[in-house]
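User: Predict the structure for this protein chain, please.
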Amino acid sequence: MSKYSSLYFHFPFCETKCHYCDFYSLARDRVQDSEVTRFESAIQKEVQFYADQLSPEIKTIFLGGGTPSMTAPSSMERIFSELWKKTRLAKDYEWTMEANPSSVDLDRMRAYRSLGINRVSMGVQSLRNDHLKNLGRVHDRGEALKSLDILFKSGFENVSVDLLCGVPGQTLQDLKAALDELTSHPIQHLSCYILTLGTKHKMFKDLPDEDTQLEHYLYLDEYMTSHGFEHYEISNFAKPGRRARHNLVYWKNEPYLSFGPSAHSFNSEQGVRFKNYSSLHQYAEKIEKGEFPIEWKEDLTQEQKNIEAWMLAVRLEEGFPKDWIKTPHQQAVLGRFLTGKLIQSHPKVSDRYQLTPRGLALSEQIVKELI
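Assistant: Here is the predicted structure, written as structure tokens:
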């Protein structure tokens, strides 16, 4: 059986619960200290459960949440002490921690670096205070920029920032101003996601229309690529050599093992996905009983594997092999998308196609028609 060399750890605690966030998280002021201690103990035991499935060397680790940077470095060290009894970091490892501006502190960030964390992904989201307030964020523009300076001062060189597009009231000028400010710092990576809300959400009616979202997306592509970033995935831009290696594990359908409440894992050899309970209580209770905290498992069918292969391939700059186009239907659809400049021959690899920036914005519809 193949061993896992990419690991994800879910830290569920946040300062507040953002109203647009779908990830499992708990507002820290509503959580007892005993529950935090219980979580730390449970996640260490979960690592023990999977000891024989860990690769001798770990290539990537991602700490997500929640807000991992709210966890004290001393607690983080205890959590990972169990892992280092079973395995070690590869020489060229990538270890990412998500952070929010309100939890970035110079001494704290230096302590994280001393643990081995070598990449930080910070959730800026916007640099307009009224937008941040409407999104329920607890930081403001000044704090975001100050925290970005602290990350570099503490010694982190590989820094990524998150932005949101399609925020109610956001203009192209707002997006340009944010990108100007952020790229004036030596960031190596930027993720920009379109704000997605359910139809019953209070802000849904205020979202910009699809034409405006497309305009912003195409501007983002033009801006970032002209500033030396590679548009290597639908929502992600990186300086050469700084692509998010852990996330590429997901996008390339490679195996990964995840720990913590709500965490998803994938065994690519067996074609199995499995997910932990999205409840701190249920997650910890299972582990305390000596049981795996798995809520469900899914054996992927060949059809599901085929759909996922398409969905993931079109997201990436590498695109998909030309020999995936087999049927007369696919050939006709491809011809239409080539004419409409949604798909193009890959400029660097002769036997592949890739989506154009406009095509990336419509990738879901393109895949549906192709398969």
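The first helix runs from residue 33 to 49.
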